[in-house]
Design goal:
The chain has 2 domains: 2-121, Rossmann fold, CATH 3.40.50.720; 123-295 and 323-341, Dihydrodipicolinate Reductase, domain 2 (2-Layer Sandwich). Helices cover 35% and strands 25% of the residues. The protein contains 11 helices and 15 strands. It has helices at 11-21, 37-47, 56-62, 75-84, 99-110, 126-136, 165-168, 172-187, 203-206, 295-307, 317-336; strands at residues 2-7, 27-33, 51-52, 65-68, 88-91, 116-118, 143-151, 193-201, 227-234, 238-245, 254-261, 264-267, 272-277, 280-285, 340-341. Strands 14-13-12-11-7-10-9-8-15 form a 9-stranded mixed β-sheet. Strands 3-2-1-4-5-6 form a 6-stranded parallel β-sheet, sandwiched between helices. Helix 1 (11-21) links the parallel strand 1 and strand 2. Helix 5 runs antiparallel to helix 11 (317-336). It is globular. Bound molecules: nicotinamide-adenine-dinucleotide (NAD). Nicotinamide-adenine-dinucleotide (NAD) binds next to helix 1.
């Protein structure tokens, strides 16, 4: 039996990870910890979890694996602490606030008997897995140009600490855009980014009395990005046009990834692929992908299988670090008004 402890008992822990891990007979959630002890007690009671730990360290000592669902600032120090104690780590996305912290997590994992998973759950969606298998079968050939949009119309999270730069490291990009950056680069072959040119905005969220569908927030204290555009270059002359937003004046929310290759092109949401051969152009729409498991179940199953040594972790720490490097370079490019090269 793998004993699991939850650090940070907020929305994603209670809405996703606790109910999901409870479906597996090979694991048991034995401990919870939250800096707000009343929250931890209430979650322990609600989900019938036996122990409320007095500290993150005490929890780590008492379990085999931890799920880290705190604000982003604590992802790296808690992951490193757990890995140093040879515990397995499931850390929510983004991997960390900075690429330097990501590297510390990678080093800690190398020296640990524990494994490190980062919660880029879009990879476990049926469309993502189907596209990955089509791409790996050679359907689009070599990827050339990638277009990514992860757009929300006027949906700044009005709860939690999502607009707090110190705790989160940024706004729409690090919180939401990171998912599609990860998915698009993984689908295209775990691309290594080399240069970024970007602009960031928070004009709409700084306006007085902003129209917002996801609760109220204070424009005065809004200190993060709500809209980002970027041009990203990768090794082997692959490039990406990227846009993400929490608050844009667009007609509707949209998640879009399209990858144009030398043999064909693929759209992920909604799935279709484009080909040109024998004097003809065709587009095939994928109407149905067979699967009987949800993405959250598949993600947890992959983590548990990797602990048991029967599965390969689908999200590799180095890939999650590439995402953090792109995010960091986007912020730096916007701040300095110049293109930013990405090193190791
Ligand atoms: N994969 C996804 O789609 C997804 C969705 C939502 C959130 N997340 C990620 O999960 C994390 C948490 O988000 P959330 O929506 O649950 O936030 P939340 O604000 O609802 O919950 C965070 C909890 O962590 C607690 N906390 C804060 N600092 C702590 C610390 N140092 N030690 C222990 N507990 C601490 C808070 O008291 C709170 O209960 C974030 O990193 C976020 O990016 C991922």
């Amino acid at each position: 039996m793998i004993r699991i402890g939850i650090i940070g008992c907020g929305g994603i822990a209670t809405g996703r990870h606790i109910p999901t891990f409870k479906q597996f007979e090979t694991v048991k959630i034995t401990h919870v910890f939250d800096i707000n002890v009343e929250v931890a007690k209430s979650v322990s009671k609600q989900f019938d979890i036996p122990y409320v730990s007095e500290s993150a360290e005490a929890l780590i000592d008492a379990v085999d694996a931890v799920v880290i669902t705190t604000p982003n600032k604590f992802h790296a120090p808690l992951s490193v602490l757990a890995l140093e104690k040879n515990k397995h780590v499931f850390c929510e996305k983004p991997m960390a606030k900075t690429s330097e912290e990501c590297q510390q997590m990678i080093e800690a994992e190398k020296n640990s008997k524990g494994i490190l998973h980062i919660g880029y759950h879009y990879r476990f969606m049926k469309e993502a897995m189907a596209c990955k298998s089509l791409i790996e079968s050679g359907k689009i050939g070599k990827p050339l140009v990638i277009r990514v949009q992860s757009m929300r119309r006027r949906k700044v999270p009005g709860w939690g600490v999502f607009t707090n730069k110190d705790l989160q490291g940024g706004g729409a990009l690090i919180d939401y855009g990171c998912h599609l950056l990860d998915l698009a680069t993984w689908l295209s072959g775990s691309l290594k980014p080399i240069e970024v040119s970007a602009s960031t905005y928070n004009v709409l969220s700084k306006q007085q009395a902003p129209v917002n569908e996801w609760g109220a927030f204070d424009p005065e204290s809004f200190e993060v990005d709500d809209h980002v555009s970027a041009f990203i270059r990768f090794e082997n002359n692959i490039s990406m046009l990227f846009e993400t937003s929490w608050a844009a004046n667009v007609e509707s929310d949209c998640e879009h990834i399209s990858i144009s290759g030398d043999l064909g092109g693929i759209d992920v949401f909604k799935m279709r692929y484009n080909e040109a051969s024998n004097g003809m152009m065709s587009t095939t729409q994928i109407d149905y992908v067979q699967t009987d498991k949800t993405f959250e179940y598949l993600q947890a199953e992959n983590f548990i299988g990797a602990i048991q040594g029967v599965s390969h972790l689908k999200v590799q720490p180095q890939e999650a670090k590439y995402v953090s490097q792109m995010i960091e370079a986007i912020y730096e490019s916007a701040r300095t008004n110049q293109a930013i090269k990405i090193g190791e």
